[in-house]
Amino acid sequence: MAIKVQNLKKSFTRKGNDTLQVLDGVSFHVSDGEFVTLLGPSGCGKTTLLKIIAGIERMDEGVLEPMPSQANFLPIIWQEHRLFPWRTVLGNVAFPLELRNAEESFAKTKVLEMLKSVKLEAFADYYPWQISSGMAQRAAIARALVTDSKCVLMDEPFASVDYQTKQSLFQQLQELRRSQGLTILYVTHDLRDAIMFSDRIVVLSAIPTKVREIIQPTSADLPHSQLEEHLWKLLR
After folding, report:
1. Which fold has domain 1-74+151-236?
2. Is the pLDDT of residue 117 over 80?
């Protein structure tokens, strides 16, 4: 699934009717099956941009393809897993299918397949407080993908886990990407993650936010250390 963002603008009204321009003509695209990372200073509107693409926020101006709708929404995986504490792992992953009124036996079969794909089938009847943070993030990934969405938006989903767990989660995510043909739009502050895992990196400016540069790490012809230094200079 491809995404096109063209000249997208978004502002918010503050106290006293003062307007804060957050996104000021942001343009980029994500090709089908691509892993694209959004990199930018804190507060530049990366999460706002994901919310607009998902259909949670409305843009002021611009072109967005596909336009989100109730029948065509894109799942977001957040920094916190946001699982319902009163539901089991199975119940949490099943929730999007319940919203779509999926037949119960089909939903259970689909959920168990997804739990197996993220290696959580043995924890289906556990509650979020009974599993580790890494397991909870895997459950959040399963919940996002259970509806067979071909695109997933990710807002620093591994920022709260340790390095070893993060690497394991990235490996499982890449396996799911290959097996399901996923398109991924990923937000992070971690320059090394962006370099290691991205097909392309979209570097954003501070607000009012524009695209500063789009970099393809494998074609940059620079060692990782020099590419990281270049990204850091752009962010500063």
Report:
1. Rossmann fold (3.40.50)
2. yes
